[in-house]
Amino acid sequence: METSTGQTSTGQTSAGHWKKIWIGSAGNMVEWFDWFVYASFATYFAGAFFPAGNDTAKLMNTAGIFAVGFFMRPVGGWLLGRVGDRRGRKAALTLTVTLMSASAVLIALAPTYAVAGYGGVAVLLVARLLQGLSVGGEYAASATYLTEASAPGRRGFASSFQYVSMTAGQIAGLGLLILLQHTLTGAQLHSWGWRIPFVVGALGAAVIFYLRRSMLETEAYEESTAADHDRGTIRALLRHKREALLVMALTMGGTVAYYTYTTYLTKYLSNSAGLSKQTATLVSFCALIVFACIQPLAGALSDRIGRRPLLITFAVGSTFLTVPIMTMLKHAGSFWPALGLSLLALVIVTGYTSINACVKAELFPTGVRSLGVALPYALANALFGGTAEYVALWFKDGGIESGFYWYVAGCAAVSLVVYLTMRETRDIDLRTTGVPTS
After folding, report:
1. Does the keyword field hold Transmembrane (predicted)?
2. Are the CB atoms for 405 and 326 separated by under 8 Å?
3. Domain count of the chain?
4. What is the DSSP letter of 431?
5. What tens digit of pLDDT does each residue of 345-371 get?
6. Of 8, 90, 140, 186, whose CB is crowded by the most CB atoms within 10 A?
7. Bridge-partner residues for 2, per DSSP?
8. Quick check: 158 and 13 in contact, CB under 8 A?
């Protein structure tokens, strides 16, 4: 027997459910492709928007603009979280991909410093602000959609595809970078080749917009009886202050570690470890493929043993192994040692990434679930995830690069305390949050 959500009564994943995962995940992939190619191609376009000077200073400037996008994520989390709770998950998901498409077009067409001076930086800044709005809502909308659309005993597995799709977006961006590195000269990449991924992202977003217009709403949202005037409001969220603070605290360590070993890793390997840009890119590309493949395995494991064991494993590993891993990465010297250490780090991070979406969604009732996930998560990302790369470069520029390693470990330690004291959410009934499923 199959319900209207595409789930079977036995909790197995049906064809209808797989379709929902595909549409939700494909859109998420394009969103994060556009978000991450900014970081992946920054070493090529940093010089296009700023005057000649120190290479690390240029990267810090572009990293600063990257961080600005994160500070718009709380605004996007509030705005699009409200849309998701009041108008539906489908409406929010469609709006996010529209904003992302517009931002990709702006970056693709942005004038360089030689043409418009700092006018190009202004265009770049506006584009990142739009991306921040979009991603601020996308995370919560897709996390809520994937969690609500799955059977109770498969929520960890289904929601793990959020990071599969996020990572697939980054893999696609790195794959395109590798292709361009082998088909264009360095001069061509610095001159105009870096614009190609943003054109690709804009076209991909247009396709996803078409697909999302036909997606089905989740049954949990349609059956919600929350009063219309109270859906998705700050007033409703304030009745769940503890859960909101919990989302911020459990995000802190995970988001810093995730951005350290994904967006910053390529720059770290080339700018600090001394690997060539091509080798550093290939290391990240191969590591992320493995990372994406193990997300559903970890998500399915959480459906059997619970969410807390995986979160605690991540936090313990990140707290005690970050400093030695980053130190050895700096002296890796070649492809295989760098790849092995990167994989070790990403396996540890999987304890957080594979299940954090469903854990957060499981904390809130339907009428405030999208906003409850979006706003606290976006705030934590603005404070910790978005600044991770800038903080790393700040430590490097100050001659104390190892300080960043301890910073990452410290953030993980704070989250470890939260994981040890939080309740288990695996058996929560999404329609009556707080009540275990039978």
Report:
1. yes
2. yes
3. 1
4. G
5. 999 999 999 999 999 999 999 889 999
6. 140
7. 8
8. yes
